[in-house]
C-alpha cells in the first residue's frame, strides 16, 4: 500500500511540474508574440508617418 501511495504522489507531482512548465512556456511564447507584433506595428507606424 505504501509503495502505491508513493507512486501516486510521484505521478501527481510530475503532472503538476509539467503543467507549470507548460504554463511558463506559454507565457514566454505570449511575450515573444506580443513583442514581435508591437515591433511590427511600430515599424508600420514609422513608415506611414514618413510618407
List the helices and strands and how they pair.
Blueprint: H1 2-50
- Helix share, percent: over 70%
The N- and C-terminal alpha carbons lie at a distance of 75 Å
Main β-sheet description = none
Low-confidence segments: none
Question: How would you portray this structure in words?
Answer:
The protein is mainly α and 51 residues long. The chain has 1 helix and no strands. The protein has one helix at residues 2-50. The longest helix has 49 residues, at 2-50. The protein is rod-shaped and about 75 Å long.
Features:
51 residues; mainly alpha; 96% helix; 0% strand
Outline of the structure:
By secondary structure, the chain is an all-alpha fold. It is 96% helix and 0% strand.
Amino acid at each position: 500500500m505504501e509503495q502505491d501511495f508513493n507512486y501516486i504522489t510521484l505521478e501527481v507531482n510530475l503532472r503538476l511540474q509539467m503543467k507549470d512548465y507548460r504554463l511558463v512556456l506559454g507565457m514566454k511564447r505570449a511575450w515573444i508574440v506580443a513583442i514581435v507584433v508591437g515591433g511590427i506595428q511600430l515599424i508600420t507606424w514609422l513608415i506611414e508617418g514618413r510618407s
